[in-house]
Design a protein that fits this description.
alpha+beta
C-alpha cells in the first residue's frame, strides 16, 4: 500500500511541479505554458520559447526569449489571478491554433473583479519543440478599455450602437 501511495505521489509531483515541456505534445505545451506561467516561474518562458522567438499581440511585437521574459514579468506583476480555458485547439504540422478564454483579476482593472477575455493564438514550433513564432489575437477594448470607469462607458456605448439590430 505504501508503494502505491508513494507512486501516486511521485506521479502527481511529476505532472505538476516537475513537468518537462519536451515530453509534451505541442498543444499540451501551449496549455501547460499558459496555465503555469507566473511571476515566480519565469524560467518557463525561456523553456517554452526559442531564444530568437517572435511574439506579436495587439499591444506590440517582441523578439527574443529574454525580452519575452521581461514582458511576461511585467504582465504578471500586478495580477492577482489568471487562468485559461481552451474550448478549441488545432494542430497542423508544427503550428498550434488555440482558442482561449482568459479570466484574470488585477486591482488595476474592473475594481479587482475578474475580467473575461476571449482570444486566440497561433504558435509555430521549431524542430526542437520550442515556440519560434507566437501571435495573439484579442480585443484590447474587451481586455482594458471597457474596464476603465469613464472610458469603459463610452466604449460599451459605441459598441452597442455599432451592433446590428
Amino acid at each position: 500500500m505504501k508503494y502505491i501511495t508513494l507512486s501516486m505521489a511521485l506521479l502527481f509531483t511529476t505532472l505538476t511541479w516537475g513537468q518537462n515541456l519536451k515530453t509534451l505534445t505541442n498543444p499540451q505545451k501551449v496549455e501547460y505554458f499558459y496555465n503555469n506561467s507566473s511571476k515566480e516561474n519565469m524560467s518557463l518562458v525561456t523553456e517554452f520559447y526559442h531564444p530568437d522567438a517572435e511574439f506579436t499581440d495587439p499591444v506590440g511585437s517582441i523578439k527574443g526569449a529574454e525580452n519575452l521574459k521581461n514582458y511576461y514579468s511585467g504582465l504578471y506583476e500586478n495580477l492577482k489571478d489568471i487562468k485559461f480555458e481552451f474550448p478549441q485547439m488545432f494542430q497542423d504540422k508544427d503550428t498550434v491554433i488555440a482558442v482561449w478564454i482568459m479570466t484574470m483579476s488585477t486591482e488595476k482593472l474592473n475594481d479587482g473583479k475578474p475580467v473575461l477575455l476571449h482570444g486566440s493564438s497561433i504558435i509555430k514550433f521549431n524542430t526542437d519543440g520550442q515556440a519560434i513564432s507566437h501571435r495573439d489575437y484579442f480585443d484590447l477594448g474587451e481586455m482594458v478599455y471597457e474596464h476603465i470607469p469613464v472610458v469603459g462607458y463610452f466604449v460599451r456605448k459605441i459598441k452597442s450602437k455599432l451592433q446590428a439590430h
